[in-house]
Amino acid sequence: MPVFIFLFINSIVGLSAYIAVYKLFQYKGFVDALICWFVFYFSQIALTSLILGVLSQLRLSNLILLNLITLFSLWLVSRKRASSFDPRPLKNSLPALFSNKVILLALSVILSFGVVKIFINLVNPPFGWDSLNYHFTFPVEWLKNANLHTPITVFDDPSPSYYPIGASLYFFWLILPFKSVFMADLGQVPFFVLAFFAVFSISRKLSLNREFSFLAASLFFMIPNFFKQLQIAYADVMMAALFLACLNSLFLLRGEFSRRNTLSWSLSLGLMLSTKTVALPYSALLTIPFIYLTVKNINRVYLFFFSAAVVCALGGFSYIRNFIEAQNPLYPLNLSFWGREILKGPISAADYRSRFSLGDYRFVKMLFHEGLGLQTLLFVLPASFLALPIAFIKKRRGVGFFKGYLFCLPVLLFLAYRFIIPYANLRYLYPLLGLGVILAFYTADKLNLPRSSINILSAICVISSMAELAKRRELVTSAILAILIFALSLIMIIRRPRIPVKKSVLYMGIVISAVISLFVLQDYYIKNEYPRYLKMVKYSGFWPDAAKAWDWLNSNTEGDNVAYAGRPVPFPLYGTNFKNNVYYVSVNKTEPAKLHYFPDSDYAWGEDFISLHMSFEEEGNYRGGADFSTWMNNLGRRGTDYLFVYSLHQTKELAFPVEDDWARQNKVFFRPVFINDTIHIYKISKG
Q1: CA 361 – CA 289 distance, rounded (Å)
Q2: How many CB atoms sit inside 10 A of residue 371's CB?
Q3: What are 504-522's pLDDT values in tens digits?
Q4: Rounded to an integer, what distance in angstroms lies between the CA atom of residue 573 and that of residue 193?
Q5: How many CA atoms lie within 13 A of 266 on its CB side?
Q6: Can you list the pairs that 297-304 forms with residues at least 24 positions away whose Cβ atoms lie under 8 Å?
Q7: Contact criterion met (CB below 8 Å) for 621 and 598
Q8: What is the spatial distance between Cα 50 and Cα 313, in angstroms, rounded to a whole number?
Q9: 317-326, 380-389, 432-441 — which is least confidently predicted?
Q10: Is the pTM of this model over 0.90?
Q11: Which residues make Cβ contacts (< 8 Å) with residue 124, sequence separation at least 6?
């Protein structure tokens, strides 16, 4: 049943997006229209979820009803219009593309390694830190409460509770039919596809041939650091894909400054803003050419205000809520300029940066220790500096503001990453890598480099990437599968065998097989979710003590109330089908605790994590004024059955929070039921 619901609700939204893109707005060009379809699809999911969440009616039945109403309304408005859908350009271009053996090799690698990673995700529980900390935890809370309230994230950076929630909304959409993360763990996969088509489409708009455009998209896809995001449900590929879709819409606006192109740009930008706060400086860089195009088309200045309204509606929810709750849209950041406080918050940018050093930004470290692949060294890095001067040399009349700005954008993106974004995570550079690959092929084309040389370099990059895309048995399995797919493709092209089955029957068989596989895999996932946490410890990199404790708690609870303290990894405590209620119980009178409920709080820490925990416990902060009696009353009001205590996060020496001391000292109320080196579970007496 969950599989049918999943297919049904996604079919509704997919059909709505089709009607909007191909009938209502009549988007042209196969790839451009497909990109717009993706954007409309994600936008409808986000908007309908936001509307119901604000009304505290975020339930599956309401989502189905609202999206059915949307579908019917779109059909009613556009029922007499012809569809602009035209797959002929795709059919006509595929034979030429597949005649290039490097393209076939790249596709074989992408398919084989991608299929293996997708299969691993479908049979294994999630292990990404952000997923277990908040990306999945928030949707489970929304599922239980039918609203968009976010619980506090504790014992680590408390900011995620105030992050944009666009990515979590999409994960919620995938979680809701199954009451598990069976499909949500693959949440970024459609955005990989969107990023691929966006790179291809932008390359074509820069007058690159189809082969170069396809190779650019393939090499970007296979950057190891980027490709490995298939195996974890983060939001970085989402942001990169939407950045590139937004950039593609700018090209459309450059050709035709119209309502439909403004809408696709605005939806892309709004969605991007809704994924991560990191998107803020990147969106500012994308807004500059949009303002330029608006000035050039000043007679349609109303489209600027239309765009602002759409962006705000789709991407502004968290920023507006932060402003209402804490009078600071960027809360908990304390923003100062020239010593003057602009936005008041409890955490300064210097504290966010304290965990990183100048060494984290070294090019050698980025290129050779972070999985950026040979293509970054051979293509992205040279093009980021050479694209603009070569364009000026080759174009006697100049390149114009729009292209000139585009060629400067990789450098501007890096400067934003280095000096504005407080984290040195390489995954924040994915937009730069996508654009850099495009400019590399553009530069090679302008220099008239031999196609054979470009093909050879591309093939070397594909082969070198394979060794970094997976490890051990996964690498061997994927490599063998890639060789088989590549060999079979060559045979099909050279011999062109006649397939005895009609194409329609073949496609129907593939679809039916995929649906049956979903049923089987979903049943397997539910039965083996927690035991596989234990089996996948080496693959996931998570600590085995936690996996054992999660499995024990799942086996010994049935709809219990579980309070946790210590490491902020609450998601596995919900159990199968999210049967348990999981929460943090305050150690002071402010219960439930939320950061903005402590208006005079101030958090400061250094490179070591013990200073972070000490900061949380200072007077006026959310763990300040800890009192056993108050904590016990808070536990009682929640009807708490179990206390799950992790050791503190990333301390040099093993340490537990004060809740563990209280539980050990009061054995009348707290009976230890599971103990290992890093986790203690207590059954709470309600007598």
Answers
A1: 28
A2: 18
A3: 677 788 888 888 888 999 9
A4: 33
A5: 21
A6: 297/257, 300/257, 303/257, 303/259, 303/262
A7: yes
A8: 9
A9: 380-389
A10: yes
A11: 532, 536, 539, 540
